[in-house]
Specification:
Strand 2 and strand 3 form a beta hairpin. The longest helix has 8 residues. The chain is globular and about 35 Å long. It has a single domain, classed as Nonspecific Lipid-transfer Protein, Chain A. By secondary structure, it is an alpha+beta fold. The chain starts with 6 loop residues before the first helix and ends with a helix. It has a 5-stranded mixed sheet with strand order 3-2-1-4-5.
Length: 116
């Protein structure tokens, strides 16, 4: 399994790292990820009753919007930066912290999922 390196690749890897058992039955949410920089982009991640889809572009009405630079997003996903510190220092902006915490709990972390 190839390790995703860029923010764009990491976002697309969410489909592989999704843990449907962590989503409450009937849970539905749309997340807009706006990742600045040449390795990022804009993405929609939709979770609906244990299924996930990831699309480029912003579609639908977001439950939560997440903004970060490509390097910050990569560092948070790979465990090189503490997510809480990145949020506190404004490196990651989140419109709904509760929804973001739910979102984070539904995925294997890159550093754990892509162990050598």
């Amino acid at each position: 399994m190839q390790k995703p390196a860029t923010a764009k690749e990491i976002v697309h890897s969410l489909q592989d790292r999704f843990r449907p058992e962590k989503a409450e039955p009937g849970y539905a949410a749309i997340f807009h990820l706006d990742i600045e920089g040449e390795r990022g982009g804009q993405f929609t991640v939709a979770i609906d009753d244990g299924t996930i889809s990831v699309h480029e572009g912003l579609e639908g009405t977001a439950t939560c919007e997440i903004k970060a630079s490509d390097s910050t997003y990569e560092d948070v996903e790979w465990g090189r930066t503490n997510p809480q510190m990145a949020f506190m220092f404004g490196k990651v902006k989140v419109s709904d912290i509760g929804a973001m915490l739910d979102f984070a709990g539904m995925f294997h972390r890159c550093e754990d999922y892509y162990k050598d």
